[in-house]
Amino acid sequence: MEQPKREKPYQKPTGERRGLVLVYTGEGKGKTTAALGLVLRAVGRGYRARIFQFMKHERAAFGEHRALERLGVEIEGLGDGFSWKSKDLDHSAALAYKGWQKAREILLSGTYFLVVWDEISYPIRYGWIPLEEVLQALEQKPKGVHLVLTGRGMPEEIIERADTASEVRKVKHAFDAGVPAQRGIEH
């Protein structure tokens, strides 16, 4: 009988600790949820976190907004909802860019341990936020700040610069069976 191959013994990394760039992308459900999990972990350790949601309304009242407010985490919707519902795409683009300026400023301020740019891939892909500006912000990110970027179709240039990138793959989704979004699960 053939012996199973042994994995290499664990070796503790010897590099320096620094703020990471993490990406969650792909067609599956769970990208925002993964980012929020990191926020909970950071806040649980006493660190400050800030979340910007590029496709959510400014005054959204999703379950995660309500819970995070109770924890003292600032979460801000920067858009006017999902683009396919927009009545004025020029207005949507202007909101996204204005929100981008604020999200970039907060990242570069170094005030927060963890910053999340949720669903930022959409306004980048739509041309509302220049990819070059996002890449520049990644280069200028303060050393001790962690940054999470989420969204389907994340540009390859961002993935290449990330320290950690995960692709969430859809195997099956309730929407495909006609089940509508549900409070406490999708929002």
TrEMBL record:
Enzyme Commission number(s): 2.5.1.17
Source domain of life: Bacteria
Short name of one Pfam family: CobA_CobO_BtuR
SUPFAM superfamilies in the cross-refs: P-loop containing nucleoside triphosphate hydrolases
GO molecular function: ATP binding; corrinoid adenosyltransferase activity
Signal peptide: none
InterPro entries, A to Z: CblAdoTrfase_CobA, P-loop_NTPase
Keyword terms: Transferase
Record flagged with keyword Transferase: yes
Transferase in keyword set: yes
Biological processes, Gene Ontology terms: cobalamin biosynthetic process
Protein name stated in the entry: Cob(I)yrinic acid a,c-diamide adenosyltransferase
Species name: Meiothermus luteus
Gene giving rise to this polypeptide: btuR
